[in-house]
Amino acid sequence: MPRATLPPAPAGRPSSLVDTRIIYCGDCLDQLSKLPDGCVDLVYIDPPFNSNRNYEVFWGETKEKRAFEDRHASTQAYIEYMRPRCVELARVLKKTGSFYYHCDWHASHYVKVMLDQIMGENQFQNEIVWKRAGAHSDTKQGMKRFGNVTDSILFYTGGAKTWTFNPEYLPYDDQYVNAMYRHVEQGTGRRYRLDNLTASKPGGDTKYEWTAPDGTKVRPYKGRYWAYSRKKMEAFAEAGRLVYSKSGMPNYKRYLDEMPGVSLQNIWTDLPPISSTAKERLGYPTQKPLALLERIINASSNPNDIVLDAFCGCGTALVAAQNLGRQWVGIDVSPTACRVMAKRMRDVCKLREDEDLWRVGRGFVVRDLPWTEEKLRKIPPFEFENWAVIALGGIPNKAQVGDMGIDGRIFPVSASPAEQKPTKGQTPVFDEFMDAWYPIQVKQKDKVGRPDIDAFETAMERANRTKGFFVAFDYSADALTEIDRFFRKTGKVIVALTVREILGEQLAMRLA
After folding, report:
1. What is the fold of 373-511?
2. Which residues have CB under 8 Å from 92's CB, separation 6+?
3. pTM of the prediction?
4. What kind and span of H or E run contains 253?
5. Is 38:95 a contact under the CB 8 Å cutoff?
6. Which CATH code is given to the segment(s) 22-167+264-367?
């Protein structure tokens, strides 16, 4: 079936090729098939590879965890899963575009063979080696081998003879600076080195006689030529860029602060992984540092180019693209991941999730979330729990195990530190702000009964909360009666919300 031609871009649309600033929820194989050929400037993917073992996966700020059996039971199964998706990614990539595939040691060599077949061996540009962890031992469980501390990022291009590439540089190390730029200019304090102004091959007027300030006349050494014309040398002298030796031979003053730095190579050791105390940390185990994605996006795209991440996870590539003025498209199969990404775009990038704003070239939207009661009944319990908490504007609990009957928390706007203006000589009391919260309990049930409400009441009493929120598909008469009794006895409020109310966004009055 021939693919549909692209309609004219509506007014305000950021891209004339494809809709951007969209997060799609679903299998990227399905979503990519809807995109036209050659519409993306840069593809970055970091697909999960789970090597025949259980993983604990933490989604977003929630740090809630679950164990699941590896769907990629073998490398072959993983490659078979990724091949049709990479074929689609290669199709939507522009000929002048770039493709980055981020993987670890489990399958990197097999992935390269697959990508050589899809992209073409000649389109392979680099294997970038990123040091993602500090030294550790891999000798547990009888293993005897060197520690694995790196990831591979396979860099391919789309097939054109030229492609977008912006060279990047790193600062010189102190040892190099001290050895090479050992001179310091009086008055300015600028460090500089002296460069020879002669060359081994002639080119134009390069054998002239040069006069030093003391009147000494010099020519290039035997077998050498001036590297610059007389006119250029005169310009250097006028700018104060010449330093003379005792023999009267001029040298060029090259300032350290004018040098771009060391050209970036394919081994990246200067971008540390996200530490446990990092501000950007969301708790997702394979979360990559923002600086890593910014480097890739800066190198292989220009402002307003389209960046695609088909395995978004927690959305770092989208945040980097937005921060750097690129257009972007994100895809992930997990509804929770998509909502976490949306929250991150709002909180970090200050981009509004709004259909009307998106239509005029501002804001962003999330598409194809399972926002029907029928679909929400089918998603895994942890996904449903996160969906409900985030939909209420809350923060999911840090751990499912030992949550003491509380799945998430809502921090009221009035509890913001900005609202707590300290008196003179005092500082804001952050602990008091953090203690102003309401608990959320979520049950993926058609009928929540009284025992569920009793357990939530106990959790509220234990946490000394005056108000709480319960989410389910519906409630039994006994459950609603118990909520009323609890209020009359204690004055504490339980707001019983249904999924239908959340889907209809009829929450303003209920959450007040």
Report:
1. Trna Endonuclease; Chain: A, domain 1 (3.40.1350)
2. 32, 35, 36, 37, 38, 39, 40, 43, 308
3. 0.70
4. strand 250-255
5. yes
6. 3.40.50.150
How far does CA 361 lie from the centroid of its chain? 22
Positions of CATH 3.40.50.150 in the chain: 22-167+264-367
Comparing CA positions, the residue from 410, 409, 470 lying closest to residue 441 is 470
CA–CA dist 439, 409 (Å, integer): 5
In 10 A of CB 70, how many CB atoms? 16
Angle (CA) 121-126-131 rounded to 5° is 140
Please give the Cα distance from 140 to 6 (Å, whole number).
55
Question: pLDDT for 294-313, tens place per residue?
Answer: 999 999 999 999 999 999 98
What pLDDT digit, counting tens, does each position of 433-455 carry? Answer: 446 789 999 999 999 999 999 99
Higher pLDDT, 277 or 406: 406
Cβ neighbour number for residue 312 with a 10 Å cutoff: 28
**Among the ranges given (94-103, 124-133, 136-145), the one the predictor scored with the smallest mean pLDDT:** 136-145
Give me the phi and psi of 253, to 5 degrees please.
-90, 110
List % helix, strand, coil for the chain (3-state, nearest 5). 30, 20, 45
Start-end ranges of CATH 3.40.1350.10 in the chain?
373-511
**C-beta separation of 138 from 148 below 8 A:** yes
CA 322 – CA 328 distance, rounded (Å): 7
Mean pLDDT, residues 132-139: 69
Residue 34's nearest CA partner among 61, 3, 79 is: 3
CB atoms within 10 A of CB 155: 21
Tell me the C-alpha distance between 40 and 95, whole Å.
Answer: 9
339 near 281, Cβ under 8 Å? no
Length of the chain: 512
Helix axes 75-92, 108-119, angle to 10 degrees: 40
471 to 377, 453, 477: CA distances (angstroms): 13, 11, 15
Closest among 306, 316, 308, 356 to 340, alpha carbons compared: 316
Q: Which residue reads 């996160």 in tokens?
A: 386
**Residue 476, exposed/middle/buried by CB under 10 A (0-12, 13-18, 19+)?**
middle
Half-sphere exposure of 391 (CA within 13 A, CB side): 29
User: Taking the alpha carbons of 289, 295, 296, 302 in that order, is the dihedral positive or negative?
Assistant: positive
SS3 57: strand
Which amino acid is present at 339? R
Residues near 72 by Cβ (< 8 Å), separated by ≥ 6? 48, 49, 50, 51, 78, 81
